[in-house]
Amino acid sequence: MVRRDQREKGAFYLRGLLLAGRRKSMQPMAERLGIDHQQLQQFMTSSTWPVGDVRARLAWRAVRVVRPQVWVVDDTGFPKDGTASPGVARQYSGTLGKVGNCQIGVSVHAASDTASCPLSWRLFLPTAWDTPKAAARRRACRIPDGERHRPKWELALEMLDELDGHGLRPAALVADTGYGANADFRHGLEDRGLAYVLQAKGEMTAHAEGCEPHQPAYGGLGPRPLPRYRTRPLSLRGHVLAAGRHHGRTLTWRKGSKAAMSSHFVLLHVSLAGRFSIRWMRSGPA
């Protein structure tokens, strides 16, 4: 930041986030810092400083310190009491483990066995914030007119593109079923040439290794027919059960708070139904 007053207010804001205290909104932080909360408010809402440059420098610094083995895409819920905070709504939060009044932040984290640090965040806007009833709240929160509801997987891909533009790419990316079960997200990772390990749902269907799609003959009229399999796909759970417990092995990956963390896994090569170019490495507890 070029201006001295911006650097000072930025330091105040960062110190307020790091100090003890449950509430991290402007007024509680200002009280703990012993300053007027309007200084923090102006810094975050009115002051012009290069957000992208700051994000890039922080992301590079985090990668150098964490030395990540993977990047993690996830979303986090922030409980709220009122309705004034941008993006707040009654929605499901994995953090809460239930539907609650909260904001949802989508993040990309750099992670290793010993550390984790966010590289980028996006605020998720529920569809309720696109309705005419939310117009007053949008103005109060200064949400740009062009910023509308977008699915979480789309926000995640946007962050990955932004980080790639800063010269940062993951060795591998991991995410839970909220992202792994979404075909658009998987296709987006493949189109970007990113390696990934994603949690899948047991009811997702796939074809066994060795099954090849058949290309029907083209009759000369209309669009060419798409390739299709001659056999029906089986659920991922069905594939694991068919392989049997003897097909797997027990793996221990690290020490937990009480004992070593281990489970029995079955590794199978399958092709997810719906797109013929995917070769899916599926690992799951037997």
TrEMBL record:
The lineage of its organism: Bacteria, Bacillati, Actinomycetota, Actinomycetes, Kitasatosporales. It comes from Streptomyces rapamycinicus (strain ATCC 29253 / DSM 41530 / NRRL 5491 / AYB-994). Residues 3-259 form the Transposase IS701-like DDE domain. InterPro entries: IS701-like (IPR039365), IS701-like_DDE_dom (IPR038721), RNaseH-like_sf (IPR012337). This is Transposase IS701-like DDE domain-containing protein. Pfam families: DDE_5.
